[in-house]
Amino acid sequence: MTSTPSLNPRILGQAENAHRALLTRILEKSGTSYTHWVVLNLVATAESAVSPQELRNRVASALKIEDAEVAETVETLVRTDVLSSDAARLALTESGLDLYGHIRAEVDQTVTSLYDGVPREDLAAAGRVLVLLTERANSKLGTIS
């Protein structure tokens, strides 16, 4: 008789590593780094204009990296015409929208195929637990995400 394992750091890490490997495979096709993708995703999904400082703060907190690394990423995306920037806000350019849309579609297709057949209530329970664990870890780190 096999019992269902309880969530633990090993299982959580294995799930994250498998998801990240699939995402990396998708990103490599377009020459996009993980940090670039996080910036693109945050700008694309923001409900309102995002200031450069707000974006740097959000990405640094989410990825647990230094502000300088995020600033370099943003500068690269502006220089390569993926983001446009003024002092008040960042936005995706036309080529940035195309890149984001292509990657987002492939990510969505991959995630749908992974989660297909998993009961909705199980996904909801997993989501609640992962949000709680993330909040607790961020509290210990003294960060907000």
Characteristic terms for this protein:
145 residues, mainly alpha, Arc Repressor Mutant, subunit A, 2 strands, 71% helix, globular
Report on the architecture of this protein.
By secondary structure, the chain is mostly helical. It has a single domain (27-141), classed as Winged helix-like DNA-binding domain superfamily/Winged helix DNA-binding domain (Arc Repressor Mutant, subunit A, Orthogonal Bundle). The protein is 71% helix and 4% strand. It contains six helices and two strands. It has helices at residues 9-30, 34-45, 52-63, 67-79, 94-115, 120-141; strands at 83-85, 90-92. A two-stranded antiparallel ribbon has the order 1-2. Helix 2 packs across helix 3 (52-63).
Provide a brief overview of the structure:
This protein is mainly α and 145 residues long. The protein has helices at residues 9-30, 34-45, 52-63, 67-79, 94-115, 120-141; strands at 83-85, 90-92. Helix 2 (34-45) crosses helix 5 (94-115) and helix 3 (52-63) packs across helix 4 (67-79).
Total number of distinct structural domains: 1
- Uncertain spans, ≥5 residues at pLDDT below 50? none
Strand order of the largest sheet: 1-2
Distance between the termini: 41 Å
- Structural Rg: 17 Å
CATH class category name: Mainly Alpha
State the CATH superfamily name: Winged helix-like DNA-binding domain superfamily/Winged helix DNA-binding domain
The helical percent reads over 70%
Measured by DSSP, the beta-strand proportion falls in under 5%
Cα shape: globular
What order do the SSEs take from the amino end to the carboxyl end, as H and E?
A: HHHHEEHH
CATH architecture descriptor name: Orthogonal Bundle
CATH topology: Arc Repressor Mutant, subunit A
**Mean pLDDT across all amino acids:** 92
Alpha plus pi helix count: 6
Number of strands: 2
What structural class do helix, strand and pairing data support?
Answer: mainly alpha
Largest sheet, in brief, is: 2 strands, antiparallel
